[in-house]
Amino acid sequence: MGIQDETADSIYTDLDEYAGVDDDRSEWSRFIARWRETFASQWRLLKQDTLVVFGIVTIAFFALVAVLAPYIAPHSPLERQYGDDGVLISQWHEPFWLGGEGGHILGTTAEGYDIFSQLVFGTRPALIVGFAAAVITATFGTMVALVAGYYGGRVDDVLMRLVDIAYGLPLLPTVILMVAYLGPSFFNVIIAVCLLQWRSSARVIRSQVLSLRERPFVQSARVAGASDWRIISRHIAPNVLPLTFLYAAFAIGWGILTEAGVSFLGLGDPSQVSWGTMLQSSHTYNAMSHGVWWWFVPPGICIALVVISGFLIGRGYEEITNPKLRRRN
Amino acid sequence: MSEQIEDGEPMLRVENLQKRFRVDDGIVNAITNRLRGDDPSYVHAVDGVSFDLQKGETLGLAGESGCGKTTTGMTLTKLYEPSGGSIRYEGRDITDLEGEDLQAFRRNVQMIFQDPFESLNPKRTIFDTLVEPLKIHDIGNQQKRVARALEFAGLTPPEQFFDQFPHELSGGQRQRVAIARALVLDPDFIVADEPVSMLDVSLRAGVLQLLERMNKEYNLSVVYISHDLSLLRHMCDKLAIMYLGRIVEYGRTEEIIESPKHPYTKALVNAVPVPDPTIKRTRVELAGEVGDAIEVPTGCRFKDRCDEHLGDVCDQVSPPLERKADITGDRLVGCHLFESAEGFDPEAELVKSRSGDGSPVAAESDD
Question: Which end of chain A is more exposed for a tag (fewer CB within 10 A), N or C?
Answer without folding.
Answer: C
